[in-house]
Structure formats: C-alpha cells, structure tokens
Amino acid sequence: MALSLDGHLPPVNDQGFLLDASLWNEQVALELARREAIQLTEAHWSILHFIRQYHQQYKHLPNARMFVAALRKQFGEEVGNSRYLQNLFPQGPLKYACKLAGLPKPPNCL
User: Fold this and answer.
1) Nearest 5°: CA angle at 52, between 49 and 57?
2) Active site residue 109
3) How does DSSP assign 60-78, residue by residue?
4) Domain assignment of residue 61, given as a range
5) Number of domain units in the chain
6) Which of 3, 9, 70, 109 is catalytic?
7) Is the overall model pTM greater than 0.70, yes or no?
8) Residue 5 domain-assigned?
9) Is 8 within a domain?
10) Does residue 7 form part of some domain?
C-alpha cells in the first residue's frame, strides 16, 4: 500500500520507532508492520489502538505485566494473556505493539 507521505515514513530512530507519535496514522502503522514482516489483522489493530489510548490517558507506557493486566480488564481473559499477545507479536508484544502504534520504546525493553 502506498503511503500518503510519498512512500516515506515520518522520522524514526535507529530502532525504527517514530520520533513524533503525533505523526502516526494507520498507513504509517501498515508500513512499520511491513518492515517487521507483520501482517496486521483486526486483532492487531485492537491492540494498537488500545496502547495508543492507554498512552494518551496515562502519559506513560505500561510495563509488560501492566500491559497484559490492562488488556485483560478491557477485553477479557482471551485477549489479556501473554500467549495471545505473543502470537500477534512474536518478537515482543509490548515492544512491537508500541512500535507499530507509533509510540516510544517502552522502558525495560531490549
């Protein structure tokens, strides 16, 4: 899919995280996901929109345990568990959810 930004992403850091989260949109997410070889599904979009809302509301990113607990509270046990998230984001659920959602790299992520 061609981006409205002439095929270029907004500025990213050396690990591929957007430098300005306000420049994120779904087309940017699609390009970030393509670069990570992740095919976004409705399940992914739910997580991406959730983590963006969480960040906007609380002005910080959760740690992995808080992330799973917050998802469990919002969506129930089926979504709020580590195995489900690991299937969506095999290289690291919190890190890659934040990356694809245009947010900073979470603290304590390698």
Assistant:
1) 125
2) yes
3) S---HHHHHHHHHHHH-TT
4) 21-100
5) 1
6) 109
7) yes
8) no
9) no
10) no
